[in-house]
Every structure is written in structure tokens, then in C-alpha cells.
């Protein structure tokens, strides 16, 4: 009896959903064979998305994290911002029919990207203007067994210093603030200058009404990007190459 009632409720829900949604699935929504689950550090983890959120895209980001030290004996560097190109790896998620990679290869992509490609930024204009440091949109090919990985968009800090993800090719955008932070696992790749892997983050909508279709972003499986101590970098501004996975969530629509 309870079971029947439950089924009936589910059917009502499904019918309501079907009526509310267009027949064609939205192209921005990932279609999965296996249910994707967020990577774990093996110890403390970032909290899961709240109910009602669906995964829209998994991306790789490759670029720089920039920092400032007021003096060489400042306790910690201040984060100034970040710039990165984003690439779509949604279809490479392990278990995805035909295109999924195995877990080991998939999780290694951020490190492979960091070490095999030059930074996709015009570093000669770096620092001048957030509108011009990017190179033209370009796909990448980082492992021989898979075809190109498509350019998805750009990550930068906007004029209000808010982390922004502009998923240009699919018309999605996230303007976010930090919500949770955990250390990368000890085994994480320490990056080109050996300063360590930047923390994993849970970022939530900034509430500025700038986001479009996205409201939650995770940064995980980071490679490089951590600041050097000020006594090493000295006073002034500096940047550290990094790559990471970004998981983008939005409300069911
Ligand atoms: C994963 O895929 C890579 C590349 O195809 C292969 O070299 C490796 O042996 C695979 N690993 C596992 C555990 O299947
Ligand atoms: C650091 O990143 C920010 C945000 O993307 C950018 O505006 C700035 O030009 C970069 N460089 C410096 C030195 O702040
Ligand atoms: C993170 O998000 C949760 C849920 O919205 C909120 O309760 C909490 O205050 C946030 N924490 C920070 C540090 O923003
Ligand atoms: C460092 O970057 C900040 C923000 O872009 C800028 O205001 C400052 O003048 C820079 N400092 C130096 C020493 O270049």
C-alpha cells in the first residue's frame, strides 16, 4: 500500500516535471551513464550539492593564480585573482558510454594538462586588463587516445574581484564567492614551481544576479597554483601556473 502510494506520488512528480520541461533535453545538461560523484580527498571532503542541483559541466581549467606580498616578511600572500582557459571534459567522465576514460586517466588530466601545454594566456598583457589576457578560443589535445578536448570558456576575477566562470560555448555563467575550502591531498601534484597544489573549493553564487544557469562550482583535483611564501617570492605581485577540475552545478530547469 505504502509502496503503491509512493509510486503514484513519483508518477505525479514525473508527469509534472515532464509537463514543465521541453521534450528535448537541454544541451547544457550532461547526460550520464554512471552517476558522477565528486572526487574525495580521502579525509575531509567538501559538502555535497544541496537537493535540486544538477551537474551541468565538468571542466579542466589551465592558467595562473596570482598573489601579492606587501613585504617579504608578510605572513601570507594575498590572492589577487586568477586567469584560466576552461575545457569541457564532461563526456570523458568514467563510465560515460563510448567516451568515458578510466578513473586513473581521468583524474590525471589536470596534471597532464599543466605539464604538457603552455599556459593559454597572453602573459605579455597580463596585469593590464582582464579583457585582453586571453588567447583566441582553442581546443586542446593532451592525450593521444582521446580526440581534442573542446574549449568551453574562461575564468577570471571581475571588476568587483569576484571569481567568474564564463562558459562561453554553452551560454552558462557563474559569479561566485568562496564557501568551503579543504587542503589538496598530500599526493597532489605540486606544480611547475613546486609550491604545492592549491586548495579544493566549494564556491557558491555571489548573489549579484550575474550568474546564468549556474549557482555552484567545485574546484577539485588541483595541480600547482599554491602561493610561494613571501620570504621566497619577495615583495610584489607574482603568479603561479595551475590546472584543476571545475564541476559546475545549476538548478534543475
Ligand atoms: C586506463 O587507461 C589508460 C590509457 O588508456 C591505460 O594505460 C591504463 O592501463 C588504464 N588503467 C586501468 C586501471 O584500467
Ligand atoms: C591577476 O588576476 C586578476 C584577475 O583575473 C587580473 O585582473 C590581474 O590582472 C592579474 N594580475 C595582477 C598582477 O593582478
Ligand atoms: C556556506 O554555505 C552554507 C549553506 O548555504 C552556509 O550556511 C554557510 O554559512 C556558508 N559558509 C560560508 C563560509 O560562506
Ligand atoms: C599588484 O597588483 C595590484 C592589483 O592589480 C596593483 O594595484 C598593484 O599596483 C600591483 N603592485 C605592483 C608592485 O606591481
Automatic annotation (TrEMBL):
Identify the Pfam families for this entry. DUF3455
Q: Which UniProt keywords apply?
A: Signal
Q: Looking at the keywords, is Transmembrane helix present?
A: no
* InterPro entries with a match to the protein in the record: DUF3455 (IPR021851)
> What domain of life is recorded for the organism?
Eukaryota
- Show which residues constitute the signal peptide: 1-20
Instruction: From the record, give the transmembrane residue ranges.
Output: none
Record protein name field: Malate dehydrogenase
Per the UniProt record, the source organism is Diplogelasinospora grovesii
